[in-house]
Amino acid sequence: MENIFKRSFLEGYASANISIKTVLVALAVTLLISLYIFLVYRLVTRKTFYSKSFNLSLVCTALITAAIIVTIQSSIVVSLGMVGALSIVRFRTAIKDPMDLAFLFWSISVGIICGAGYAAFAIILSITITVAIVVLDNIPVAKASMILVVNCNDIDSEDKILECVRETVKHFSVKSRNMTSSTLDITLELRTSEGGKLVRNLMDIEGVQSANLLQHDGEVTY
Questions:
Q1: Mean pLDDT value across residues 121-125
Q2: Which domains does the chain have, with CATH numbers?
């Protein structure tokens, strides 16, 4: 009985034989899918800031993850060692764009799935993510909000300014009022397709010294 228990215990820690062919196939499939991720990331970020080094890191991350998963499958002792070694790794680089984080998890997931021998699932995952990105990216969004800053040397001109804004803008919100003994600075958040007309009408108001209309990409609060 003791020998049976001892033999079964040792067999649980025995190393499984993984052929070079298995490793090469896993890495080759991972490389192909990661190159696909590379191209998708390049196309998605064509209108924004593109980081080639980050894009290259996606390919490397997928390959490294696949290699780790294949190695872990060979032995439970190796897998425990990998867990201990990777637990001390800390990433200090800040992710500037949420989409970068999504692509990073996509790359890691492909490495894990391909390393585990389920390449078909990785292909299905990649196709599904691509379709989701294309569909969601083409959904029309509301017109971007703007910030209007009006400087006036007449502190009693606020009603005239707001009335002028109402003529061309349906919805707006007063964000701040800065008043001194002789000047008034008022900031509004609004949406309009007639920005030039609005600014010209404001400049026709007596006492208005300047009117600045700025594009606003932040959170809308109305």
A1: 93
A2: 2-137 (no CATH), 146-215 (3.30.70.1710)
